[in-house]
Design goal:
The protein has 360 residues and is of the alpha+beta class. Helices cover 23% and strands 34% of the residues. Helix 2 packs across helix 3 (107-117), helix 2 (91-101) runs parallel beside helix 4 (133-146) and helix 3 packs across helix 4. The longest helix has 15 residues, at 163-177.
Length: 360
């Protein structure tokens, strides 16, 4: 399906849930709606599905205006955070239900195929209540896939599952979506999930669409500080600076050698903000690095990474280090930063400089 949104706006009483936005989804690809809670992701999905009519604007499906057309009249599949299955039907019948509604042939074979892809073959004769949460979510996904809808909407479908199940299902979904059978919209609050799913990403914040494009491009070149914040986990380190002759001057008189665009470079002492992803900071220096000595305020291990919070002369920084590292609270440590790995934003929060290709 080619889905196009034109000047879509959504208000509920005096509250604005979506500000006017235009969005044309890339057909047969995955589009991730990325944003914090209450960014507008679910509201936008409900408009796409036909569950809600927008206050203003138009929804076009394959060139046809379907604004206000109820969801039952659209060929759309949806999967929610809270998995929904028919409790009185077996797993097999749950998956088969959309196929039976369409009067399709070869239902048993199709159900077996989907059950195999989602690893729920042993449970086809069971009722949903006899399954774990992860298995029930797989059933809901299988039923949505069985519908073969040209538009599939998934609203944080893995958020209520444990870490191991999320990782497993995310990988399987990426492979399933790669077939290009449907235009897929997937909502998430997690930047890492957006990067793993690939495709395209639309960044939303407080009801505004900030940027849309290929996921890797949006990650590498966020057009504003708001996009960079939304697309960073842990949050991007942000430091105040001013334009200088040789780049940017940080607090404590430290100079960061970053080539600025001509207008910014010409405006000496102009206020700038430096953005540094946590993964760009290291504890071992290389030629050309800026050394940032400091003291450890907190160190935490998450999965296979260590996050260390360091109080430095330019401000508090969070470094994401691969592997398990031990740091004593209050101990001295020096972080190192390659100037080629920084972002520079102007006083309005718009992107001036992004890391070079191949950098973070």
């Amino acid at each position: 399906m080619e889905l196009k949104l034109e000047r879509i706006e959504q208000k509920v009483g005096a509250s604005t849930h979506l500000y006017p936005l235009d969005l044309q989804l890339v057909p047969r690809a995955v589009t991730v709606l990325l944003g914090a809670t209450q960014a507008g992701k679910t509201t936008l999905m409900r408009v796409m599905a036909g569950l809600d009519k927008p206050t203003a604007g138009h929804v076009l499906a394959d060139g046809k205006d379907v604004t206000g057309m109820p969801v039952r009249e659209r060929n759309v599949a949806m999967v929610y955070q809270q998995f929904i299955n028919y409790p009185s039907m077996t797993v097999h019948d749950n998956i088969a239900s959309p196929l039976k509604l369409r009067g399709e042939q070869g239902i048993v074979a199709r159900v077996q195929e989907l059950a195999a892809k989602l690893h729920i073959e042993p449970f086809l004769k069971r009722l949903p209540a006899e399954l774990s949460g992860g298995q029930q979510q797989r059933v809901a996904l299988a039923r949505a896939l069985a519908k073969k809808a040209p538009l599939m909407l998934l609203d944080e479908p893995l958020v209520n599952l444990d870490y191991k199940l999320r990782e497993e299902l995310r990988e399987e979904l990426t492979q399933l979506f790669a077939t290009g059978e449907s235009t897929v919209v997937y909502a998430t609050t997690e930047p890492t999930e957006a990067l793993l799913l690939g495709g395209y990403t639309a960044v939303l914040d407080a009801g505004e669409l900030l940027q849309y494009g290929p996921t890797a491009e949006v990650f590498r070149r966020p057009k504003s500080m708001r996009v960079a914040r939304a697309f960073s986990d842990p949050p991007m380190n942000l430091l105040a600076g001013t334009a200088a002759t040789l780049g940017v001057t940080l607090a404590a008189g430290m100079n960061l050698s970053v080539p600025l665009p001509a207008p910014a470079a010409a405006t000496r002492t102009a206020a700038l903000t430096i953005g540094i992803r946590a993964s760009a900071l290291r504890v071992r220096g290389r030629d050309g690095d800026l050394a940032l000595p400091g003291k450890v305020e907190l160190a935490e291990i998450s999965g296979s990474d260590t996050f260390v919070h360091v109080d430095t002369p330019v401000g508090e920084l969070v470094a994401q280090l691969t592997g398990v590292h031990q740091f004593e609270l209050g101990s001295s440590v020096t972080l190192y930063l390659n100037p080629a790995h920084v972002y520079v934003f102007d006083a309005n929060g718009d992107l001036l400089v992004a890391p070079s290709t191949g950098s973070l």
